[in-house]
Design brief:
The protein has helices spanning 2-41, 45-48, 63-71, 74-105, 111-123, 130-139, 146-170, 175-182, 187-198, 200-216, 219-224, 233-238, 248-268, 270-279, and strands at residues 241-242, 245-246. By secondary structure, the chain is mostly helical. Strand 1 (241-242) and strand 2 form a beta hairpin.
Length: 284
């Protein structure tokens, strides 16, 4: 009896050790690139381009941050990215919530086809759409404007967020809305007084997705914007690479500053994000 008990304890110890080791490896795999980015941004050029680079910076400097902010106008690009990402997020949440409400709560012909096509539209690669989208943007006179980015980003943020909110709305019982309608509320009033407050975690998850997608987008921002004063952060960071020359110091400094807003956003909305993603996977 004691032998089997010892064997069981040994197996539990081995499993726990393997789990901790796997978790540690995964943690290093995720965190180390970010650490190396920050460490590179504070190394002087003499150490940065030396034959051997140590794991820890031997000297500390902020010259790369000064170069990025002053010479490369990171603040202007940061403002442009914030404007585009914020506008895209607000419009995405507004349209996606109304679209998901229409598909999940209202009855009309073709509703099932619309629900299926929403996800299919999101699956279309953006590299296939930038030429026709640019023709449309140029024709209507929006070329080289931040508005063109907002309009085009909506083409891939709205379908996914609508699909995600559809699953979340389906998980909310209809009884509360029906009771509100019996008390005199209209269909639209039940939407913003009942459904939206109950689906707040899902809205937060959809908003973070839309913001992150707009914040990191590079292809459309590179093609639609030709003026340097309207460039977004990803395009500005790409300008640090000229042929085979990589300006590692300013590039890593800009990447570190660009990651801070998204990190803060995820930290503030972490709980709502997890709840929203899990609830959005429920199907009624």
């Amino acid at each position: 009896m004691n032998f089997w008990r010892e064997q069981y304890k040994l197996q539990r110890l081995v499993r726990r050790t393997l789990f901790v080791m796997a978790l540690l490896i995964f943690f290093i795999w995720v965190v180390f690139p970010f650490y190396w980015m920050v460490a590179t941004s504070v190394r002087p050029n003499a150490e940065l381009y030396a034959r051997r680079v140590s794991l820890l910076p031997q000297q500390f400097t902020l010259e790369h941050y000064e170069t990025e902010l002053n010479r490369y106008q990171f603040g202007v690009r940061l403002r442009n990215s914030l404007v585009v990402a914020s506008a895209t997020t607000i419009l995405t949440i507004t349209v996606s919530s109304l679209g998901a409400f229409s598909v999940t709560r209202m009855r009309y012909r073709g509703r099932a086809t619309i629900a299926r096509s929403i996800l299919f539209v999101y699956l279309i690669p953006g590299s296939l759409l930038f030429i026709p989208l640019y023709i449309i943007v140029y024709t209507v006179g929006l070329a080289n404007t931040l508005t063109s980015l907002v309009v085009t980003y909506l083409t891939f943020s709205i379908p996914f967020c609508t699909w995600m909110l559809m699953g979340y709305f389906k998980a909310i019982p209809k009884d509360m809305e029906e009771a509100a309608m019996i008390d005199g509320c209209t269909r639209l009033q039940t939407f913003y007084k009942i459904l939206l407050p109950l689906s707040a975690p899902g809205l937060v998850a959809a908003g973070i997705f839309a913001f992150t997608l707009s914040w990191n987008e590079f292809l459309y921002a590179l093609i639609f914007i030709t003026s340097s004063r309207l460039q977004t952060v990803p395009v500005g960071l790409a300008s640090h690479i000229v042929a085979d020359i990589y300006m590692w110091g300013p590039l890593m400094a800009g990447s570190t500053m660009a990651a801070i807003p998204v990190i803060i956003l995820y930290m503030l909305a972490q709980r709502a994000l997890v709840q929203g993603l899990f609830a959005g996977s429920v199907r009624g």
